[in-house]
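Deliverable D4.2, example record:
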Amino acid sequence: MFTSVIIPAYNEADRIENTLNGIVDIDIIDEIVVIDDGSSDSTVEILSRYKSDKLKFWVQNSNQGKGKALEKGLELCNSISDIVVFLDADLGNTSSEVVKIIMPVINNECDVAIARFRPAKKKGGMGFVKRLARDSVYEMTGVELNSTISGQRAFKKEVIDRFSKIPDGYGVEVGMTIDILKWGYTVREYIVDMTHNETGRDLKGFIHRGKQYLHIKRIVNKKRREWGN
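Output generated by the structure prediction step:
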């Protein structure tokens, strides 16, 4: 089994190196593709000096969004990939927990495995966003998942190949989950001990959550039209 990990990164200079360190020596990971999405910090310099034969990276000239970054990553993946993994850049050393979602796919327990984080240590006010995502997926597919906005996912290549385009914006994971379940693939969640930059309860945090909510609402409405729900 050949496994490719795709990491979209935007201004992640503080964490990208540790995120790579957490996965670079994992035997079941064969290549790591990082897409820098127009960072204005030193993310690219860190990637440039990172020493690993597994790593390849691409720099977008401007910030084009997560969907476009993932599409570019898929384009650069080795054509022999059997499993494709999406991973966020801000996980730090806890990225090593990714084996908990890769192994179930290798072992054919499911077609797609999603990382389910333990409850956040600080209250972030994300409840209404997560609720919208969870309830929308359930209403459209009849499948109850708790981590529909989690960016940590492992896919059988045949599943990812069904997508002609990756949804853009903060609704990317919800949109993909709806399509995957509607196509009849199996999706399971696995608890991981990952941590990432938690959104705070300040103005910036609330603006971010507002954008997430609107993006998810938009992609769900789009999927309702496409699937006739």
